[in-house]
Structure formats: C-alpha cells, structure tokens
Design a protein that fits this description.
The chain is α/β, with parallel strands linked by helices. Helix content is 31%, strand content 24%. It starts with a strand and ends with a strand.
Length: 301
C-alpha cells in the first residue's frame, strides 16, 4: 500500500484555487526559500516542534525518551536534535502541548476520507481539493494516486507546485489536474539560487511545457520586498507570462512574516527578520505594471 507524509490538512480554504477547498500539505521541498511561510514542510521527514511558551518545565518528557535526548537546563527543557529519534514518546506525555510531531504517514484512503467530508461545499462553490506543500512532486507516486482517486469521485483538483522536478512526474499527473497553481519566485537564475538554494531552470522549462500542452495554469508570484519586487524582475516575469498560451491569470501573493514563530519552534533561524509586508500601494503598482502587458492580475491567492 502506497503511503505519503503530510503535515497539515486545511478545510474551507479560499486562497488555494477556485471555490471552497480542502488543502492537503505534503511534506518535503527541494527549495529553501528565505521567506518560506511553511518551514515545517521543507524537511521530508517528521519533525519535533517545541513551544517553549507552553512548557511547564515539569520534566515528564525526560524519563520517557528512549535516547536520553531531553534534559532540563537553565532555560527550561532542551532537546539534543542529533540524539532524538523522533519517536514521539515525549509528545504523548506532554499535557501542556508544548511538544508536537509535525508530519504523519497516511494512506490514500485516509486522505480521501477527509477530503470527501466536504464534497457538498465543493459542489456549491466550484471548489475541490488542492495538493500543496512543501512540494507535492517530491512524493510523485503518492500524489498520482491521490489525484486519480479524486478524479474518480469527480472532485476538482489543483496542484500547487514550484515545478522543480523532472518532466516525467508532471507529465504523469497532468491529465488528473484541473488547474496548476504554479509558483514563480524569481526570473534571474543567480538570484533564484541565492534566495531558494536551487536553480530555476527546470521550473521554467516545466512551466513552459505545461503551457504548451494546454494545461490550465494560474501563476503565483510571491511579492517579497527587496528580493523580487524590482522593476527588472517584474518586467521579466510579465514577459514570461505573456508567452504562456494557457495562462489563466497571475496572482500576487504578498509576503508576510507570521511564520517567524514556526522557525523558533523548529529551532531554526528566520532569514528575513526585518522584512515587512509589501504595502497596498506597492502591490497596486506591481499589478498595474503586469496589466500593462495584457495580463489578468489578482492580488492575493
């Protein structure tokens, strides 16, 4: 039985495709975007999340750890991440809910059971299910089975992807996808490497290939101040978008820093601490620039 690892299921989502949707977040991503608002989705493995503000310092987690990875120190409870086996024993005894496992292994049937609960809302709103991440293409077989199962039930499907992949996984799933929510970060490859850790060449190739095949595409552009909001990148983005024959529209997604607390709970450094949400005036100006190229532009998902 094929299984996958997900880290969240969000019901009644209205920003991940048309209508009311259920968004299933698959774990693992090949990119390490400096502004990522789902850092818990980057590592393909389950992770331990720790909320120090909830910790009572009771020490109940210490004796149950089979690896002896937890100790009390001057700042409260500390966990040796290298020794931790991610067994989850400490989570089970933490009644303050300061410790949480992020990421769980599930079957296709288990995911479909959650998705099918809201079919009535999909039918009324023109919604459906969106597979997001992380990057869902990192679990290609699991994603393909999920999409097939949804189409058998006549559930509208969307895949939110950065496209950093070989062509084959995309080619395998495209007949079961009603709309691709395609994330486009930066056009300049050097800057893309700087802020995401990888080249954008496969992402650009796959975007063009999907469009040439006539797939329904909504381009999603995160607007991150001082990263990709410069005139050069915006005009290069517009030129690329106008050359896509099956593009539906461009969505501008304003950066926000509400994920800072997630990095702290994962014991990670947030790389853009001083960056603020782009102003409404800036978003309006960017939308105006893209519309000058004849593009349909929407601010927000």
């Amino acid at each position: 039985m094929t299984t996958g690892i997900i880290f969240d299921v969000k019901k009644f989502s209205i920003h991940d495709g048309p209508g009311i949707r259920t968004t299933v977040f698959l774990k693992g991503c090949p990119l390490q975007c400096s502004w990522c608002h789902n850092p818990e989705g980057q590592d393909p493995r389950p992770q331990l999340l720790y909320r120090p503000d909830r910790c009572l310092g009771c020490g109940e987690c210490i004796p149950v750890c089979p690896k002896g990875a937890i100790r009390l120190d001057g700042d409260g409870v500390a966990t040796d991440s290298e020794a931790c086996s991610l067994c989850g024993a400490c989570v089970e005894v933490c009644y303050a809910e300061a410790r949480e496992m992020v990421g769980r292994q599930v079957t296709v049937s288990e995911v479909l059971a959650e998705v099918e609960q809201d079919i009535a809302f999909y039918d009324q709103s023109g919604g459906g299910v969106t597979f997001s991440g992380g990057e869902p293409l990192l679990q290609p077989e699991f994603l393909l089975l999920l999409l097939r199962a949804c189409k058998e039930r006549e559930i509208h499907t969307a895949v939110d992807t950065c496209g950093h992949s070989d062509w084959q996984p995309l080619d395998d799933i495209r007949e079961y996808v009603d709309v691709f929510l395609y994330d486009l970060k930066l056009i300049d490859d050097e800057k893309h490497r700087q802020f995401t850790g990888v080249s954008n060449q496969s992402s650009l190739r796959n975007l063009q290939a999907l469009s040439q095949q006539g797939e329904n595409i909504i381009l999603r552009v995160p607007v991150v101040p001082r990263v990709n909001d410069d005139e050069e990148n915006l005009r290069a983005t517009a030129e690329l978008a106008t050359a896509l024959p099956s593009l539906t529209r461009v969505d501008l997604l304003p950066y926000h820093n509400t994920a800072i607390h997630k990095y702290r709970r994962l014991g990670r450094e947030f790389l853009l601490p001083g960056t603020q949400r782009p102003s409404d005036d800036l978003l309006t100006s960017i939308a105006r620039t893209l519309r000058e190229f004849g593009l349909q532009v929407h601010i927000g998902g």
